[in-house]
Structure formats: C-alpha cells, structure tokens
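debug: dumping io for the single-chain case to check the tokenizer round-trip. Nothing else runs in this session.
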Amino acid sequence: MTSYDRTLENYCMSDDWANVARILFSTTIMLTYPIECFVVREVLENAIWDGKPPETKSHHIMITVAIVATCFIFSTFTDCLGIVLELNGVLAAVPLAFILPALCYLKLESGRLLEWRKAPAFLLAVFGFAVAIIGTFLAMVRVIDGVTCSHGKEMDYCLAPHIQNKTTSILLSLMNTTTQTTLKP
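debug: decoded output
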C-alpha cells in the first residue's frame, strides 16, 4: 500500500508530533515558493524579451503578480498534492529525462533523421512521449474518478467511537468469558 500524498494524513489530527511535522512541511513549502518564482520570472523574461526586459519596478511587480496569480488560480482547482506531483512528473520530469535529451541528440547529430545509429534516441523520444501522454491520461482519470484525495477525512482508527467500540467489545468479550467460566461447576 502506498500513501501518495497522504503521508501526514495517516496520522490523527490530535497527534502533536504529526501536527509539528505538518507545520514544518507547510513552512518549507512557503519558503521554497519564492525561489521557484525567481526561476519562472527569469525564464519568462528570457523567452519574451530575449533576456533584455524593461528595467522598471512596475514591470518586475507586474510579472511577479502574474506568476503568483496564475499559481493561485491553478492551485484552487485541487487540494490534492498527489495529483500535482503526478502531473509535474509526467509533464516536467519525463520530458527532461527522456524527450529533450533524445531530441537534442537527433537535432545535433549529423546525418539523416532515420539512421540506425539514431534509432535508440528516436525510440527514447517516442517512449517519453508515450509515458507523458499515458501518464497525463491516467492522472486525469484518477481525478475524474475521485480516487486521488481523501480531502482531510480522519482515518477510522482516529475516531473516538471506533476506539470506544473496539475497547467495549474487548471488555464485553472478556466479561462474557469470565461469566461463563465462573458459572460452570
């Protein structure tokens, strides 16, 4: 059994150490986000303005607000970290690991595109595209089926009635055994 994005949800909400871990995890995410924002801003400026963006404070603020607003809008679509990580894997990691290196090799290597010595790179790119397409499709199917998230639902073993029922049933079975033992001659 895997936990995907529910690792901290496996602990009860009343567990103090799990709550400390939740706070530390949230703090880590909040402190990491500005670093990612710098990278996106730099890439956008290089792509749109060829590395020579206007050097005004209003331009800098406008780009930053656009990045943060876009992230906020996308983040409101789901509260599941698992689906975000899954889509990040198939849409970012797979192209970086399989597709882009193979396509760069095919582009930079001299000769025709379909040569035997280029076959491994071509197959690697095809494999990468297949994994990205199938992975995206399966992630969307999981979202549509609602399998991905428990939406903060407390685990059964954390609920007080479940614990009381288990304790009560154990006590009743012990009392029943004791009563049967004492009544027999």
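debug: round-trip ok. Residues 164-169, 178-183 have pLDDT under 50 and may be disordered.
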